[in-house]
Design goal:
two-stranded antiparallel sheet
Amino acid sequence: MRVRRVTTAVVLAALLGPLAVDAARADDAPALTTPGSPVVVVDQPHLLTLSWAPSTWVGEPAGEEPITAA
């Protein structure tokens, strides 16, 4: 049952991801890309570990300086 939920979530994320990117780009401002599709790294009973590529900026955020750790 849990495998179906995870599979459903992955499929929905893959299908709806491009819609979110198009909506973010609607105003031609810098936008974040959609994270990569989740990949199962560990699949054991009672343990499921996923990995994916993080979001990145498309263009630089206008007028904002990068935040640096002090």
